[in-house]
Design a protein that fits this description.
This protein has about 475 residues and is an alpha/beta fold. Helices cover about 40% and strands about 15% of the residues. It has 17 helices and 13 strands. Strand 8, helix 14 and strand 9 form a beta-alpha-beta unit.
Length: about 475
């Protein structure tokens, strides 16, 4: 759905269904903004969105050497193309060629790349670095405050900005050095080094092990838009109102990331774990995840371009396509096919595991989950978390309650912990027989689970036991 401004920066959208709506806001010559809005009965809360002109970064360096301008322009182009790691490399070249007084605007663009990758903590640290370099930069301050407000951490932003104002120039320089050193380094296993779009797409090859990127051509019989809309309780008019493609997609234009444990053999009892990423990339398999997959005899696959910014029907359909095609390439135990995801991907996982139980025998929702009914928010009378998907038929629901397995994981300091815990308790109350709640001590929303926790979750999915 395209919405035009009144040319004074105001938009109004009417007639959308209640629930969470992911937004991608675009304007010519501006950097796109991603976010979401919660629609409810009546008039929804007004949200403010600030968009940066594409030319803003380069304009600040008009007197710089031509090489700096080339790096910045190339970085801006790569940013718009979704090649975030490659964009950062260009920005870093420029960063090393200009004086510290010019760093803030480059760091703002670098923060944007982390934000779009889903690494929000790196985005926050980069903006803190920009503010330590130039505490008076209003754009850095606004970006930083808005990001933390979105995460429910507005007081943290106010405290940090207050501390900056009290620091001496020497202390600020020291702080800037600390933040620069704390940013993620481009090393093996980091999402910014091995998991970017330049990884070549290869032809499917049965039985191959290791990590690779592949393109599929055969759609799953279950990946029917008509069937999906029935299960999501949507009609095609609703889809076409917000999606010009009307839910149609060319599978050959999509790509998928794959990890197959080295111990795989057709004779072994291997399962399949379909991953839903919150970012435009299919995700990356950390060392901890690889070890847990090896120990659990699970193959891993995740679709690219299926992050939070894409309509949920595509995320459902691509997950079904991934499961179908991987079963053609590998010997997979049909009773050990599961779906999982992180943050917004964990929410999609909840719906897929419940609505497509004939494909997925369970779901592993990490740092984000949904339920089919509104759930009351603790300590907020009258407030509810909205349902993320409709309940399946009574017959299917009975089967899901008695046989499907669900793992709900959250960090102790995760802002989604309360909803995750509430969902777990609700599922127990409703008679779900196989539900496990895992809480990672001291972990925030952005900390990766360790191998032990992941293995514990996989063990429950595959065995139905937490012992």
């Amino acid at each position: 759905m395209a919405v035009r401004t009144d040319r004074q920066g105001h938009w109004r959208i009417g007639g959308i269904a209640a629930g969470r709506w992911d937004l991608v806001i675009k304007a010519r010559d501006f950097i796109a903004v991603e976010g979401w809005v919660q629609s409810s009965t009546g008039r929804s809360e007004v949200i403010e969105v600030w968009m940066r002109p594409l030319a803003e970064v380069t304009a600040a360096f008009a007197e710089s050497p031509s090489s700096v301008l080339r790096w910045l322009e190339k970085g801006n182009t790569l940013l718009e193309q979704g090649q975030y790691q490659a964009a950062r490399e260009e920005y870093e070249k420029a960063l090393g060629a200009v004086s510290r007084t010019s760093w803030a605007k480059i760091l703002q663009s670098m923060a944007r790349t982390y934000y779009l990758e889903g690494d929000l903590e790196a985005a926050i640290r980069t903006l803190q670095w920009a503010l330590a370099v130039d505490p008076a930069d209003l754009i850095s301050s606004q970006l930083y405050s808005n990001l933390l407000d979105q995460l429910g951490r507005g007081s943290e932003a106010a405290e940090f900005l207050g501390e900056l104002r009290a620091k001496t120039p020497t202390e600020l320089e020291e702080l800037a050095s600390q933040y620069g050193a704390a940013l993620p380094q481009e090393q093996a296993g980091s999402p910014s080094s091995t998991d970017h779009s330049e990884v070549p797409v290869e032809e499917p090859r049965a039985g191959r092990t290791g990590s690779y990127r592949v393109r599929f051509v055969e759609k799953s019989p279950q990946a029917s838009l008509e069937l999906l809309l029935q299960r999501l309780d949507l009609d095609l008019d609703q889809v076409e109102a917000v999606d010009p493609a009307g839910g149609s997609y060319d599978l050959e234009g999509e790509s998928f990331r794959v990890f197959v444990p080295s111990s795989y053999s057709p004779e072994a009892d291997f399962g399949l774990f379909v991953w839903i990423s919150p970012t435009p990339l299919g995700g990356f398999v950390s060392a901890e995840m690889q070890q847990a997959l090896e120990a659990s005899r699970l193959i891993w696959v995740g679709a690219d371009r299926a992050g939070n910014g894409r309509a949920r029907w595509y995320r459902y359909l691509l997950a079904l396509d991934a499961a179908h095609n991987m079963r053609q390439l590998y010997s997979v135990d049909e009773e050990r096919v599961f779906v999982g995801g992180y943050s917004g991907g964990g929410r999609v996982t909840s719906g897929l595991a419940m609505l497509y139980s004939e494909v997925f025998r369970g779901g592993f929702s990490m740092s984000g989950c949904d339920y089919s009914e509104p759930l009351p928010v603790p300590d907020k009378p009258g407030a509810h978390w909205p349902p993320g998907f409709p309940a399946p038929s009574k017959r299917v629901l009975r089967e899901v309650k008695s046989s499907s397995r669900f793992v709900l994981l959250a960090g102790e300091l995760d802002f989604n912990r309360a909803q995750t815990r509430k969902t777990y308790l609700k599922m127990l109350d409703e008679g779900f027989e196989y539900v496990l709640y895992l809480q990672v001590p001291g972990a925030s929303h952005y900390d990766r689970p360790d191998e032990k926790t992941l293995t514990q979750g996989f063990h429950f999915l595959t065995s139905g036991s937490d012992e």
